[in-house]
Specification:
two-stranded antiparallel ribbon; alpha/beta
Length: about 325
């Protein structure tokens, strides 16, 4: 896509480069994500690698907010647009939707069927582009070849891939049942760069056994991979997951709000300013969320994060140094709630 003229404030008042800022700078208006479920599965659920999914993954395969898989892609997007229009004033006649193929692993399956689903979303006039949630170990050559063809067919629309890395540390990857070594992610990043296919890296903050140094080493690895974007996801403990069993037995504790604000601020400051931040906390379905319950106060958490970053003079990339593996931040007091 061709970028529009960037405003005098390209970050639009935030201390970091957000997805909202990218949308306004590139498309000239706000975009809205429409979560889709196209009936995919995952190698961690179909028996290829396991049956129960990663320890944090709910039965919905991270697609708890997606529309019903019984509907076609156009029907799901139409339903999403109606729902979004009831909350926000969406301009008529503008492509305002990001078709987010969210539930399970959306490049895992028959390439012909999957590419047809992507094309249906791209062909709709209300869709600005698509984002495909997947795993680094599920990027087949037929899928990548097909995405290149779709990019040529729809040059005015974007195509993104979202890779669930979670952590660069293989010891944690084994603990959470990720199912592949981090070298697979590194190889996938190189393959996507060679094809000029933009990708987003999904990370989880607060994984069992990881401290600030571990998380910032993951941030350094993401900087080295040079993705288009990153999602910083707070670890949510959801009912029915393996993680929930650990929590109920007292084996793990979720991050406290103050600790998360400090940690995510450190991540933002250490992240390359060229990497767009697509998420900072994530949403846990209220009906499934066991902990941390403070994450339900999302607006307040954002306000406290912005206040903390202002108080400490922290900005996106402020501590980014390509020659430093993982710059650390000292603990600082937080603004009062």
């Amino acid at each position: 896509m061709q970028s529009r003229a960037i405003s005098a404030d390209p970050w639009h008042g935030k201390p970091y480069y957000s997805l909202d800022a990218w949308c306004k700078n590139t498309c000239g208006h706000k975009l809205y994500k429409a979560a889709l479920d196209i009936g995919c599965t995952c190698p961690n659920r179909d028996g290829s690698l396991g049956r129960d999914g990663c320890v944090f993954c709910s039965a919905g395969g991270s697609g708890d907010f997606a529309a019903s898989r019984l509907l076609s892609v156009p029907e799901q997007l139409n339903q999403a647009r109606q729902l979004l229009s009831s909350k926000w004033k969406i301009p008529a006649g503008l492509p305002c939707l990001i078709a987010y193929f969210q539930a399970y692993t959306n490049t895992y399956g028959d390439p012909v069927r999957l590419l047809s689903q992507y094309r249906q979303a791209l062909a709709l006039p209300e869709t600005a582009g698509i984002s495909i949630a997947t795993r680094p170990d599920c990027l087949s050559e037929p899928i990548l070849d097909g995405l290149e063809r779709l990019r040529e067919e729809f040059p005015d629309k974007f195509i993104w891939l979202e890779l669930g890395l979670q952590t660069i540390h293989d010891r944690t990857g084994e603990l959470i049942g990720r199912g592949y070594p981090s070298s697979v992610f590194e190889d996938s990043a190189l393959r996507l760069h060679k094809r000029s296919l933009p990708f987003i890296v999904h990370l989880i903050l607060g994984l069992p056994g990881e401290d600030r140094s571990d998380v910032l080493e993951t941030i350094a690895a993401v900087n080295a991979a040079a993705p288009f974007g990153v999602k910083l996801q707070l670890l949510h403990i959801l009912k029915g997951t393996t993680l929930a069993g650990w929590y109920e037995r007292g084996l793990i504790s979720p991050l406290e709000e103050d600790a998360y604000i400090r940690l995510v601020a450190d991540c933002i400051a250490s992240l390359s300013p060229d990497i767009c931040i697509h998420r900072l906390t994530g949403d846990g379905p209220r009906s499934l969320l066991l902990a941390p319950l403070w994450s339900l106060r999302k607006r307040e958490v954002f306000n406290r994060l912005h206040a903390y970053m202002k108080q400490q003079n922290l900005r996106h990339g402020g501590n980014y140094d390509p020659g430093t593996a993982h710059p650390l931040q000292a603990d600082r007091p937080l603004p009062a709630q």
